[in-house]
Amino acid sequence: MSEDIVYGRQPVHEATRGRRGVQEILVTDKARSSLPWLRDLEIPVRVTGADEIGALAGTSDHQGIAAHVAPFPYADADQLFDADQPLIIVLDGVSDPRNLGAIVRSAECAGANGLILPRHGSAPVTAAVAKASAGAVEHLPIAIAPNLADWLHRAKRPGLWTYAAAADAEMSYTDGDYRDGCIFVLGAEGSGVRPRVQSACDAVVSLPMAGVISSLNVSVTAGILLFEAVRQRRQG
C-alpha cells in the first residue's frame, strides 16, 4: 500500500483522530513519556531514535514523533458547495506549504466547509502542510479542482456568493454580506488571483492598509475574511 508521512506531536495526534488510517507511529522514548494519548491507541507504536525519525520526516522539526499514514483523502470539489450556507476557501496559486497549512488551520477553526486547490500551481497536502496546519488537514475537507474558473461557475446559485480578495479592490471586506453561503478566493502573494478566476467571482474585496507595507500575508487575509463571516453569521 502506498503511504505518506506526518510528523510532529499535534499532526500525528490529529491523524489518529482523522479520516485516514495510521499504520505505525515512531517515537523517541523521551517524547513517548510526555504523550499519554499514545497508550490508548490500537496502532503499532515503535520507540526509536531521533535520527531515524528525522530521516523519515526529512527534517529535524519532528518533535520526536512521526507516523506512516495512508495517502491524503481529497474530497469531491463539487460536493463542497452543496452544503447549506457553505463557507469555502479557494486558493489560486498558493505554493508555500506553510501558508497553505496556516490557511487550513484557520478554515478548520472557523468551521469552514472546505478548501479548494487548483490541480496545478499549488502546494499539495504534504507532511509540511500537515505540520503547519497543526493537524487541521485531517479534519477539513480539501478538494482539487482541475479548473478553478469553471468550478466557480458551477458553484453559482442563489444564496451562494463568491468574493475574490485583491489589494486594489474598491470594496472593503467589511462591506460584504457573508451571512449566506460564501466562497472566498485568494491568490498568491505578488501575482494575486488570476484574471479569469477573478472574473468568475461576484465581487472583489480588499483589506484597507494603513502601514508602509502594501499587503498582508495570504494566510492572515484568509483568517480575517473567514472570521468576519463567522462574526456576521453569529449576529444573524
Task: Walk me through what this model shows.
- By secondary structure, the protein is an alpha/beta fold.
- The chain has helices spanning 9-17, 29-33, 50-57, 77-80, 97-109, 127-132, 148-155, 195-199, 218-234, and strands at residues 4-7, 22-27, 45-47, 65-69, 87-92, 114-118, 142-145, 160-165, 171-172, 181-187, 203-206.
- It contains 9 helices and 11 strands.
- Strand 5, helix 5 and strand 6 (114-118) form a beta-alpha-beta unit.
- Helix 5 runs parallel beside helix 9.
- The chain is elongated, with a radius of gyration of 19 Å.
- The model has no long low-confidence stretch (mean pLDDT 94).
CATH architectural name of the largest domain: 3-Layer(aba) Sandwich
- Please name the CATH topology of the largest domain: Alpha/beta knot
Tally the helices: 9
Provide the low-confidence segments as ranges. Answer: none
The geometry reads as: elongated
Write a concise synopsis of the structure shown.
The chain is α/β, with parallel strands linked by helices.
